[in-house]
Amino acid sequence: MSEEKKAEKKQQQEDAVAMSMAKVKYKIMVMSGKGGVGKTTVAANLAFALGMQGLEVGLMDADIHGPDIPKILGIEDKRPEISGDMIKPISVTPRLRAMSIGFLLPDRDSPVIWRGPMKMNAIRQFLSEVDWGNMDYLIIDLPPGTGDEPLSVAQLLKKVDGSVIVTTPQDLALLDSRKAVNFSGVLNVPVIGIVENMSGFVCPHCGHEINIFKYGGGERAAQELGVPFLGRVPLDPNMVEAADSGTPFVMQKDSKVSEAFAQIVQNIRTFVEGGTGAEQA
After folding, report:
1. Fold annotation for 8-273
2. Long-range contacts from 182-187, C-beta under 8 angstroms, 24+ separation
């Protein structure tokens, strides 16, 4: 293929992404500096919480090698339909739609053994060839770190409304969060703020709170890095069971976790829709 044809094809692909994403008001990346911090669980519950507020929401799983969104949402056996040249995302609730490479694999144990260009092509298709429709929010769950996937999303979208960085309460939170914050800065993506996950555990028997992973690392990271602190999500055994059973925990009322997510979502909406941001830590 000649250079001229390559340039023409690239422009067509960029135009297709721009046309599809023009129907989405706000695009948010959920990321972390390392794995094991509960980032996907946070992303899924944020999407559900936004949908529960009457908003039209899309949840895009950009973790090509470890697509956990289908499991967390309890829709592992679903397969997307094709309509013309477009893929229909999976309808989770009347206001929440999801797309993941996990829906396209032969079975749930099939590994994805792809290099960077193939991953970028899949992400481009998720952005341009999935019929998301008119949406208020597109939540993009990214794999940990600052590799191909987050870079591809930022480059393809050109304008991302913000990043939500998930971390844990340990002192290492500063080190891991700094990478994600600096990555967002390099790509001109506003940092909406930091979520401190697994923050404190309340014993169901005696009510005593135990800080298993220390306390306040995410908040201290937000202070030192000069970005908003969005809130803390406590540890709750029921949240783990809910994720394994495909029932987002945020749907359970009168719990500290659902209260935490309600505040975090409010802070995100204030930042994105109001432009003023959450209260600085």
Report:
1. Rossmann fold (3.40.50)
2. 183/31, 183/146, 183/150, 187/151, 187/154, 187/155, 187/160
